[in-house]
Write a structure and sequence with these properties.
Length: 132
């Protein structure tokens, strides 16, 4: 898979992007710290290089023998939150709506499907203002 060509951006956008990048790198230098992947395995994941976009996810998927599914209608960011259970994180303590979101993320694309999710529990749900 090849990286997408860099789009040409105007001088103003380029200047704003450079300032933003400088601020981010400055904050990392001030507050960041280096860690070993073995110490924080939950942080290991896709990260990019100079290109901003979804390319890092494609590269990660290829490297880990995974797939990137676009417009999925089933599934979530985490298939089952219980895999994250530990001494530091109790899945049963998290709010059920948050767990539902992570396990059924694809259903949250359409406000009508949000409503259907709550009908399972017999209560109405209204999408957040501005989401339609």
């Amino acid at each position: 898979m090849h990286a997408p060509p860099h789009e040409k951006i105007g001088l103003l956008r380029s200047l704003i992007a450079s300032i933003g990048a400088a601020i981010i790198y400055g904050l990392i230098a001030l507050f960041g710290r280096s860690v070993q992947e073995e110490e924080v395995p939950w942080l290991v994941g896709p990260h990019g290089d100079d290109y901003i976009g979804d390319r890092p996810y494609q590269v990660w998927a290829e490297r880990e023998n995974l797939t990137v599914e676009r417009r999925a209608t089933e599934g979530g960011l985490v298939p089952d939150m219980s895999v994250l259970e530990s001494d530091l994180f109790q899945v049963d303590a998290m709010h059920k709506e948050i767990r539902r979101f992570y396990e059924r993320t694809a259903k949250y694309r359409n406000p009508n499907e949000y409503y259907a999710l709550d009908e399972e529990e017999g209560r109405p749900w209204r999408p957040p203002a501005g989401s339609r």
